[in-house]
Amino acid sequence: MKAALFYGPHRPLELEERPIPRAGPGEIVIKVAACGLCHTDLHYIDHDVPTFAKPPLVLGHEASGIVSEVGAGVEEWHAGDRVLIPAVLSCGRCEACRRGRENICERGVMLGNHVDGAYAEYLRVPAKDALTLPMDLPLEEACLIADAVSTPYHAVVNRGEVRPGERVAVFGCGGVGINVVQIASAIGADVWAVDLKPERLAFAQEFGAAHVVDAGSAPEPGKAIRRETGGVDVAFEAIGSPATIRQALESLRRGGRLIIVGFSMESVELPAGKIMFQELEIRGSLGCRPVDYPRIIELARTGKIRVAQLVTNRVSLAQINSGFDALREGRGLRTIVVPSA
Asked: Do 56 and 21 form a contact (C-beta atoms < 8 A)?
């Protein structure tokens, strides 16, 4: 099979031939229909964030596909089944999993990080983790549910606890932030979207934002939102920048909640006195719990949230590095790799 291999930071991925994986006991192999390109991969490629498994490694953690082989003991899946593979596979046995917080599993295995991922024609995964994709969802575009949609869902519903009628601010309207906008809007929140790029702000309005703030012309967007609204109930930072984390905090009302969704390796300086005096809450948000995926799939199936419209570019495995160039430059919303292309 063809696969795009990561050999280390500051190098393009290399297209190579590899053996098709075989399904062991309790495993399935899927023929990958599509895999989303994600900023997480750019952290490995551009920003020297190490992968858990030593390169060479196949990256890619947003996969959908068709079951091509089932291993011994697998009864729930058959060749030809349409499946979604979550980005992170939980153990189900550690303390976090036992408390229903499988998204922060102590032994979690991330595709394209701990093990080979889905920038390849075939992918082997534990059968227990696969999820059914209904026929009325587009197979390729549905790959984004694995992370780009599910991570915002967890952030909005479980960590942000957003309620209908609440005011929400979203800082950063890229591939993750746009779905924070979409899901918060679907719940019934009044959404303010903040970004530097007019194209992203236009996308935010298309996906449900009632208000947009151009951070290029409003140097203190958090304070601007607070002046306009009296402060939002929940602010989401979806970039991973100390500056935007501080701006998001500035947008909150007294008693508001800041949800950090974007990844950063930098330290952030925040006003402890203000956090204490105004009883502000700061919460991290990582990935999504397995129990939530069927709910998200149903929201997509019934059109409550849109998936196909998120895809603004498709590339083959041979074009994957140009796809990452588009991601670096912030062009479009989401690019997917289609191995069969």
From this structure: no
Cα gap 30→124, rounded to integer Å: 6
Q: 191 to each of 39, 225, 236, how far by Cα in Å?
A: 24, 11, 11
Q: What is the pLDDT of residues 282-336, one digit of tens each?
A: 999 999 999 999 999 999 999 999 999 999 999 999 999 999 999 999 888 999 9
Domain 2-147+288-337 annotated CATH 3.40.50.720 = no
Tell whether domain 150-284 is in CATH 1.20.120.140: no
Report the distance separating Cα 238 and Cα 182, nearest Å.
13
In terms of pTM, does the model score above 0.90? yes
H or E, element range at 252: strand 252-260
Cis status, amide bond into 56, omega within 30 of 0: yes
Residues 296, 137 contacting (CB under 8 angstroms): no
Asked if residues 111 and 120 have their Cβ atoms less than 8 Å apart, the reply is no
Element (H, E) at 46: helix 39-46
